[in-house]
Design a protein that fits this description.
It is a single chain. The protein is an alpha+beta fold. The protein folds into two domains: about 90 residues, Winged helix-like DNA-binding domain superfamily/Winged helix DNA-binding domain (Arc Repressor Mutant, subunit A, Orthogonal Bundle), CATH 1.10.10; about 100 residues, SCP2 sterol-binding domain (Nonspecific Lipid-transfer Protein, Chain A), CATH 3.30.1050. It has eleven helices and eight strands. It has a five-stranded mixed beta sheet with strand order 6-5-4-7-8. Strands 1-3-2 form a three-stranded antiparallel beta sheet. α6 crosses α7.
Amino acid sequence: MRSYGDPCGVARGLDVIGERWALLVVRDLLLGPKRFGDLHAGLSGVSPNVLTQRLRDLIEHGVVQRRDLPPPTRVRLYELTDRGRALEPLLLYLGRWGSRTATAPEGLLGVDSILLSIKAAFDPAQAAQLHGSYELHIDDDTYAIDVTDDSLHISRDSAPKPPDATLTTDLDTLRAICDQRLTLAAALNSGSLHLDGDEHAKQDLTDLFLASFTPSPQPTTVP
């Protein structure tokens, strides 16, 4: 890897994560481990060779680690180390900062980016109101959202206990809501999005969901 040759902490950090695609690899592992093919599919534009090199560099610097599942699965996963997970606040802040740029390039948002926007928009002051366990089913993938007294955690996994509310949809619908081409109410009415759970929990999940897609979220009534 190229180095700035500068002892400053900023330069030394960029020596580790400053190469193109490196931070996006970290972004796409923040919600949990992924196979190489899943990483490659989620990073539009990166070649397999470049992705292999970035993973090798990040492993060498202790940001990412490999884990092989035992037989009969025989799957190799890539996941963040503690050092890699420590980059989450930086990435969430960078995401908030970058979303304020005047124009957005053409392209499709990945599901990891969309869900991380929920984390970036989360207001700890609302944690007591939104406290609960939720589950998202997006196409064939499941994500757990857990709101505690002062934080929000999202993982690529099922909720450890029966969730208070569940949202089921597909990635295209999720993107349309994120881009404000479709309202959540319209998605519910069309059947492209489903909410299950008690009414209070569904309302909380809806408010949590919409907070990341609207500049000034208004109270929304779940049909």
